[in-house]
Amino acid sequence: MAKKTKLRSAAQTAVRKRSSTKSAARSSARKAVKAKPRTAPAKTAPKKPSRPRQRIAISHHREEDFKADGLRTYAKYRDLGIAAASHGLAQAHVIRLQGPCDPAEVSKLHLHHVDFQMVYVLKGWVKTYMEGEGETLMQEGSAWTQPPKIKHMILDYSDDVELLEVILPAEFKTTELKA
To answer: pLDDT-based confidence at 82, cuts 50/70/90?
Structure first.
């Protein structure tokens, strides 16, 4: 029985040596190809251009604030102070189209080089044409956006029409087109 125990322990020792040699070989092979420890890549946010801090703009209705110094000669504009407060980021004004409408002067196809333009009818009505949309009658409470560089024109309006217009950026170019 002593021989059997010695044989078993010799066999067990041999098996242990072989398996530890294999695992050593395996582990050394793993070490050679072991990947570098994973670290989260440094997240860097894209730098936004620095803008001056916006300030509060308050505008109260005063008739004397409507000026004929805007884009169209047949309109009076009341600046709401947004352009100055936002350092040119946006502009907002109330527009009064002066009636009666003269289509020869008013109905000129044009486009604006803007990022955003929205119009809301405060009073009265205005009939517009927008490329891809056709003619649309906008009444008190109607609002619309005009995508950048969309061809459009005013066709007609009521004598009492007032519009709120918001445009980004405050300064932009207008291009008159042939109808």
So the answer is: very high
